[in-house]
Amino acid sequence: MNENEQQFPAEKNGERRKHAFYPSAEMLAGIPPLYGTENTSTSDTVVHLHYSVGRCDWYIAEVDPESLTAFGWAEVTPGCGEWGYSSLTEMEELNAQGYVIERDVTFKPVRAGDVARINGTQPDSSGYQYSEPLTAQDAERLGELLGLTMATCAQASSAKTGLSLEFFLRSYAQDDVLDALGMEFLSHIAAGETEATAAERTVGWLLKATAESLDLAVELHGSQR
């Protein structure tokens, strides 16, 4: 190995990820060191790497090749993206009940201002997909948790509005709602929370979303009597 070639730590989640988490030495050489973009406007700062899991995204603009400390834009809590520092090593090692952070191997360097997720034109979704689908066991477990989430929220919403359980269960069972529920749950898992805490937060998220339309639901229910 060339003495100038970057040596990365051994990957702890390489088997599950199926691709290299760290960039190649050649790619790393093209990324500015820490503070290398401090005189560049936020929108003109180039992000070189994209990492993702669930609804969590990291766009990396600077990397210290020694400590693997990275600077960039990250959104770990949905709707709360910000610029800051992350440890690539800690990101690689994260394994929240089987869910690991992956590198978008198709990502090309681009101005931060041209990234929809960063500029706010794509706040709740990412074009990057997992390189490996959920296993059958993962999917079954996620389905069970989302089923419990829907049942809990349907009971609470039904009690508050007088609408039937079936009314809410039908609403929550729509594909787009199920997708949003799943991504909300996975975002909390990716942040290191337990299944119980992630499910509790997802219930809270769905109840809040439901509460915003309760008046309309009650009005609709009244008009159908």
Summed up, what is this model?
This protein has 225 residues and is of the alpha+beta class. The protein is 43% helix and 16% strand.
How would you describe this protein?
By secondary structure, the chain is an alpha+beta fold. It has nine helices and nine strands. It has helices spanning 14-17, 25-29, 88-93, 116-119, 136-161, 165-172, 175-190, 195-211, 214-223, and strands at 46-47, 49-53, 56-63, 69-75, 82-87, 95-96, 99-100, 102-103, 110-111. A hairpin with a 5-residue loop joins β3 (56-63) and β4 (69-75). α5 crosses α8 (195-211) and α7 crosses α8 (195-211).
Keywords:
single chain; 225 residues; alpha+beta; five-stranded antiparallel beta sheet; two-stranded antiparallel sheet; 16% strand; disordered C terminus
**Rg computed from alpha carbons, rounded to a whole number of angstroms:** 21 Å
The ordered string of helix (H) and strand (E) elements is HHEEEEEHEEEEHHHHHH
Low-confidence stretches: 123-132, 219-225
Tally of alpha and pi helices: 9
- What is the overall silhouette? elongated
* Mean pLDDT across every amino acid position: 79
* Class computed from helices, strands and strand pairing: alpha+beta
Question: How is the main sheet built?
Answer: 5 strands, antiparallel
Spatial sequence of strands, sheet with the most strands:
5-4-3-2-8
What's the number of extended β-strand segments? 9
Roughly how many Å apart are the termini? 77 Å
**Oligomeric state of this protein:** single chain
**In percent terms, what proportion of residues is strand?**
15-25%
